[in-house]
Design a protein that fits this description.
The complex is a heterodimer of chains A (about 300) and B (about 260).
Chain A lengths: L1 H6 L5 H37 L5 H5 L5 H9 L9 H31 L4 H15 L2 H14 L7 H26 L2 H9 L4 H12 L1 H16 L3 H6 L17 H9 L5 H29 L1
Helix pairs in contact in A: 2-14, 5-8, 5-11, 5-13, 6-8, 7-8, 8-11, 9-10, 11-14, 13-14
Chain B lengths: L12 E10 L3 E11 L4 E5 L6 H8 L9 E9 L2 E2 L5 H7 E4 L11 H11 L6 H14 L3 H4 L12 H13 L5 E5 L7 H14 L4 E5 L3 H7 L2 E6 L2 E7 H6 L4 H7 L5
Parallel strand pairs in B: 3-8, 3-9, 6-7, 7-8
Antiparallel strand pairs in B: 1-2, 1-4, 4-5, 9-10
Helix pairs in contact in B: 3-6, 4-6, 6-7
Chain lengths: ~300, ~260
C-alpha cells in the first residue's frame, strides 16, 4: 500500500490484524462471561418460579405447612402467596423512606453548600463509613434501640429504622452529587433576584435537581428491598398482613428464608425470588429512565 | 475625588473608596471611587482578573456570596447606602444579568419572568402578574416570539432569546439599575446585535452598568466607560473621549491591543 511505502514500513499488517482480532475476541468472550451469571439467574428464576405466579400469589398470605404438603403430594401448585410479605416490605420501606429521605436530602445539601469545610468533610467520611457497616450490624443496633428500647418486641418500626439507616448514606451522597451538577449560575439567578437562601434551596435547587434526587431515592429503595439479615433481627416475620408499626411484620426476603427452611414450600422460594428480583429490576429501570430523561 | 475622573451630576449610584479583598491582602478592587450616570450605559472594561466583575457584583452585594470577602468603603444608590438595606430590597432595585443565560430550568417562560415576585412570596393577582409579564416581555422584544408558548419551559429558546428572557426577569421588578456581566459573551453575533439594540432602548428608563471584554461593544453602545487594571480604576471618562484620546498610557495600551 502507498502509505507503507511512504513511511518505509515492513509489511507486517497481517500479524497486526491477527493481534487485533485476538484481542477483540478475548474481550468479547470475557464480556459474555461477565453477563452470563445474570442470564442464568433470570433463566433459573423464570423456569422454577413462574408456575407459582398467579393472582393468589399476590393476594393471599403464605400457606401453612399442611396445605403446602397436601398440594405437593397431589402434584398441584402450592396455594396461597406472599401478600403478607409484599405488604410488609412496602409498609416498612415506606416508613424507612419517610424517615431517611428528608434527613438525607438536608444533609446532602449541607455537604454541597460546605465544600472543603472541616465539619462537612467529617460528615462525608462518616457517611462513607456508615455505608460500609454490614447490614446485620445495623440490624443488631436497631434491635437494641427499638426492639428492646421502644416497642419491647419485634416490630415493623425496628425494621424500618434499620432500613432507613442503610438508605441514609446512599441518598446523602446522591443528593450532594446531584447538587454539584446544577450550574452555579442557576443559584446566582435566584440570589440576584433577592430570593432568600432557604427559598433558593427549596424552590430553585431542589426542583432543578429533582430527577437526580429521585434516581438516588429509587436506587436506595431498591438497595434495601432485598435486605434480609437486619429484618430477621428486628421484625421477625408474620403469617398475616400487618400494618401495625409496633407488631412483627413479614417481608418478601424474610419469606424467602422461611420458605427455604420448609421442604414443602420450595417452589415458593423461587417465585418469591422472581418477584423480588423483578421488583428491584423495575425500580432500577425506572431510576435509569428518570435520570436519562431529565439529564 | 480624583479630578481627572469623570464628574457626574445627580448620579444614580456613587461608589466611594470601595476596596474588596479576598483573604489577607489580595485586593480584587482597590480604592475605587466613581459616580454612575442616570439613564446611561456605563461600561467597565479591563483584562481578565482586573476586578471588574467583583466591582459589578459589589453593587448588588452578590460578591458577599464568595468566601472570605472583606469590603471597605461604600456604595450609595440615590443617596442611600446599599450596605444598610436588606439584600432582598437592594436586589429589587439593582437587577443583574449574567454571562450565560440562566433561566430557571424547571419553570415556564411565564413563571421565569414573574419568578422574582413568586420566589419572594409576593401575593399578586393573576391580572397583575399578566401585566408584569406582558410588559417585561414586550420591553425585551420577546413577546411576539413566545406568545403561544408562555406556559412551556424556556429550554427550546435560542441562547439570545434565553438571555432576553433573563433580562425580562430582571425588568419585572422595574429596577433602578441593571448590572450586566458580559451579557453577550456566550451569544452569536446576531443575538449580540439584538441585545445591544435592546440595551440602547432600555437606557431611556434604566441605568445600565455593563462589564464587557469586548472593546468594540463598549465603543458601540456605552456612554461612559471605566477602565480597570489590577483592581484599580485607571480611567473613567466619556466613552468617545476614552477611545479617541485616553489619558493614561495603560488605557491606551489596552485599547490598542498591546495587552489584555
Amino acid at each position: 500500500m502507498e502509505t507503507k511505502a511512504l513511511i518505509g514500513e515492513k509489511d507486517n499488517s497481517n500479524w497486526r490484524e491477527l493481534k487485533n482480532k485476538l484481542f477483540f475476541g478475548t474481550v468479547v468472550v470475557l464480556a459474555t462471561l461477565t453477563i452470563s451469571p445474570i442470564l442464568l439467574i433470570v433463566y433459573t428464576l423464570l423456569s422454577k418460579g413462574l408456575k407459582q405466579i398467579n393472582f393468589d400469589f399476590f393476594l393471599k398470605v403464605a400457606p401453612d405447612t399442611l396445605q403446602a404438603m397436601t398440594a405437593v403430594r397431589n402434584g398441584e401448585i402450592i396455594p396461597g402467596g406472599i401478600a403478607n410479605g409484599i405488604t410488609g416490605t412496602l409498609f416498612m420501606v415506606l416508613i424507612a423512606s419517610l424517615m431517611a429521605i428528608p434527613v438525607s436530602i438536608v444533609i446532602g445539601i449541607f455537604l454541597y453548600e460546605n465544600q472543603g469545610k472541616k465539619y462537612a468533610n467529617l460528615i462525608r467520611s462518616l457517611t462513607d463509613i456508615l455505608q460500609g457497616v454490614p447490614s446485620v450490624v445495623l440490624g443488631l443496633i436497631a434491635y437494641i434501640w427499638i426492639v428492646q428500647g421502644v416497642t419491647k418486641g419485634f416490630s415493623a418500626l425496628a425494621g424500618s429504622v434499620a432500613l432507613a439507616i442503610m438508605m441514609l448514606p446512599l441518598i446523602i451522597r446522591s443528593t450532594e452529587e446531584t447538587m454539584k451538577m446544577i450550574p452555579i449560575s442557576i443559584k446566582e439567578a435566584g440570589a440576584a433576584l433577592g430570593v432568600p437562601y432557604h427559598k433558593i434551596i427549596l424552590r430553585v435547587m431542589i426542583p432543578s435537581g429533582f430527577s437526580g434526587l429521585m434516581t438516588g431515592i429509587l436506587l436506595s429503595i431498591s438497595r434495601v428491598l432485598g435486605e434480609t439479615a437486619p429484618l430477621m433481627l428486628t421484625t421477625l416475620g408474620s403469617t398475616t398482613v400487618n400494618f401495625n408499626i409496633t407488631k412483627p411484620t413479614s417481608a418478601v426476603p424474610l419469606q424467602i428464608w422461611e420458605f427455604y427452611n420448609n421442604p414443602n414450600m420450595i417452589d415458593l422460594v423461587w417465585s418469591s425470588s422472581l418477584f423480588l428480583m423483578a421488583f428491584v429490576l423495575t425500580l432500577n429501570i425506572i431510576a435509569k429512565r428518570i435520570s436519562m430523561r431529565y439529564s | 475625588m480624583n479630578e481627572q475622573m469623570l464628574q457626574v451630576s445627580n448620579p444614580i449610584l456613587s461608589i466611594i473608596d470601595l476596596s474588596i479583598s479576598y483573604g489577607e491582602d489580595k485586593y480584587a478592587v482597590k480604592d475605587v471611587t466613581a459616580d454612575v450616570k442616570r439613564n446611561a450605559i456605563t461600561a467597565i472594561m479591563g483584562p481578565s482578573g482586573c476586578g471588574k466583575s467583583t466591582l459589578l457584583r459589589a453593587i448588588n452585594r452578590m460578591h458577599e456570596l464568595y468566601p472570605n470577602i472583606h469590603t471597605k468603603g461604600g456604595i450609595k444608590l440615590n443617596g442611600d447606602s446599599i450596605y444598610e438595606m436588606s439584600t432582598t430590597k437592594l436586589r429589587r432595585k439593582i437587577g443583574m444579568v449574567f454571562q450565560r443565560p440562566n433561566p430557571f430550568p424547571t419553570m415556564s417562560i411565564y413563571e421565569n419572568v414573574i419568578a422574582g415576585y413568586d420566589l419572594n412570596g409576593s401575593k399578586l393577582k393573576k391580572s397583575e402578574k399578566d401585566e408584569i409579564v406582558e410588559s417585561s416581555l414586550t420591553d425585551v422584544g420577546l413577546l411576539d416570539e413566545v406568545r403561544d408558548s408562555l406556559n412551556k419551559k424556556g429550554n427550546f429558546l435560542s441562547g439570545g432569546q434565553q438571555q432576553r428572557l433573563c433580562i425580562a426577569r430582571t425588568l419585572a421588578f422595574k429596577p433602578d439599575v441593571i448590572l450586566m456581566d458580559e451579557p453577550t459573551s456566550a451569544l452569536d453575533p446576531l443575538s449580540t446585535a439584538k441585545i445591544e439594540d435592546l440595551l440602547v432602548e432600555l437606557k431611556e428608563h434604566y441605568s445600565i452598568i455593563l462589564v464587557t471584554h469586548n472593546m468594540s461593544q463598549a465603543a458601540r453602545i456605552s456612554d461612559n466607560a471605566m477602565f480597570m487594571y489590577l483592581g484599580e480604576l485607571v480611567e473613567y471618562d466619556k466613552t468617545k473621549k476614552m477611545f479617541t484620546n485616553p489619558r493614561d498610557s495603560r488605557t491606551e495600551g489596552y485599547l490598542t491591543g498591546k495587552f489584555g
